[in-house]
Amino acid sequence: MKKYVLTNQRGFTLIEILLYMALSTILVVLIGGIGANVFSGFVKVKAAEELRYNTQFVTEKIRDLVSQADSISTPVAGESSSALTLRMSDVSKDPTVIEVVDGRVTLLEGVGELQFISGTDVDVFGVEFSNITYDEGVGSLRVILEMGLRNPEDRTIYFASSTIYTTVNLQYP
Predict the structure, then answer these.
(1) Any domain includes 4
(2) Helix, strand or coil, per DSSP, at residue 148
(3) Which of 62, 82, 93, 118 lies at a 20 to 30 A Cα distance from 55?
């Protein structure tokens, strides 16, 4: 009969294994939480940047069209409207109409095709054009534009929103 001699070789106890698993789980949860916060911050910054680009583009497009116009048809002097109609000297662009359709800013030049000038993930909450032209003065227009950027996966959650107030003058005669 053989005798077995026990040496000082020792394995992990059940308590040690449970302790290591608990510490590993805590570390994974902490690292995952930090990663989620960093990613969330990145998404918010990217959304704000995209919204800033869209509002700047739409505002500059309106500014450019108004500066090329001969006159403002709608709204009349002293009034406000959610649509802007400009009279242009170029027959192919007369009249030029800017308004909000289905939550996006649209442009219609003459009898041409309807163009969207705001992005697909951008919602326009409101637009107000106020004709502040003084008697015998150069045409002036105040524009208030409220826009927001939505999450492409869940269209009801807004990441960022912005309201732009600007005043634009027609070209001098």
Answers:
(1) no
(2) strand
(3) 93
Domain range for 23 is 14-169
Q: Which two tokens stand for residue 101?
A: 């359709």
What is the rounded CA–CA span in Å between residue 59 and residue 159? 20
- Segment 61-98, tens digit of pLDDT: 988 888 888 888 888 888 888 899 888 888 888 889 99
Q: Can you read off the two tokens belonging to residue 96?
A: 């030029």
Q: Reading across the β-sheet that carries 104-109, which strands appear in turn?
A: 71-74, 84-87, 96-101, 104-109, 115-116
pLDDT of residue 19: 92
Residue 154 lies in a domain: yes
Nearest-CA neighbor of 149 among 77, 72, 48?
Answer: 48
Residue 6 lies in a domain: no
Number of domains in the chain: 1
Q: Where are the beta strands (DSSP E) in the chain?
A: 71-74, 80-81, 84-87, 96-101, 104-109, 115-116, 122-131, 140-150, 158-169
Prediction pTM value? 0.71
- % of the chain with per-residue pLDDT over 70: 84
CA 19-38-161 angle, 5° bins: 145
Render pLDDT for 109-144 as a digit per residue (tens, 0 to 9).
988 898 998 888 788 888 888 888 776 666 788 888
